[in-house]
Amino acid sequence: MPATDDRPDSGHDVDALLARIAELEAEVTRGKSEKDDAVVELDDRLVLQDVGVYRYHHPLEDAAAYKDRLRDLETEMDRIIKAGHAVLAADIFTFSGSLAKGRKMIADFSKLMLRAYNAEADNCVRSLRAGNILTAKKRLQSAVTAIERLGTLMEMRVNPDYHALRVRELELTADFQVKVQEERERAREERELLREQRRAEQELAAERERLDKERAHYQSALGALRAQGDESAVAELANRLAEIDKAIEDNDYRIANIRAGYVYVISNIGAFRPGIVKIGMTRRLEPLDRVRELGDASVPFPYDVHALYFSHDAVTLENELHKAFADRRVNFVNERREFFFATPAQVRELLQEKAGGLLEFTEEPEAAQYFQSMGRWPG
Fold it and tell me: What ranges do the domains of the chain cover?
């Protein structure tokens, strides 16, 4: 709809708008270095710089899987900007009775509005963190709404197609950051797995050394008893040597077969709630050491152990249990979190089915510290 400023109130609105635009321009340009304001040699860059598109180091520039998609987005955004379609406005607008002045004012205001919008969009990208994409989208949408409100007189608004591209840029960046977070978590867990494996290997090596010394001691004593003719003591020591040989055999098997280990089922009703269990595995010689470590890390109470089951292929058994309870995961984003909505009894039934020969399983958690603490909690 054509608009003129011949009416007194129209001129007043334009003056107010000019004042607001000046404020926005001051905010956009505040803190810019002289380098930012320098003349750019290439015309295309000059056009983009003039509307606030500065090619800073984008989070996706070095991400191989995202670089091409980012480049496509930037190409399409540049095309819209260069065509002058990033901000839409009235085709006919007169200022001081001049259509040419009206068009010049619209062009200047459009450029300034686009600078403000792009500055906000770039800030959204820079400040984006994994998990806050909705906040960033709302922030950018607020900029669109503010620009449309300030530009009402000239029917000025951000092109929805251009806005959609910048929203897509936010989504790509957020998706990348989530994947980076997952990769860091995976790397952390892999390092922890390697550390645990080294500890297990060291423990097994130390146990082998201890058994060898004990075996050598009993062999020496056995020779002395045979020389004395004490057959009763010889038989007793021979049985003990057989037990040591069996322990050495088992220890050597675990050293050779690193997949062997303990599958554990534990819970922590004080830290979480009843009906949540953690199903994991450890290669440690003393599996309870691993459970105690978990209980020392960022939880108010120690874990209760429902089962410690030794398996020659603990890796496969753990994976089978995880798959069986896949639809009951607590964390569906990071599947390496081994917590499930399940009761110990439900896990016992499945463990019995998968492993058999389950000798010990405690269904009710003791949770001694939890129950002793409850009565002293503030009301």
Answer: 8-180, 190-256, 261-374
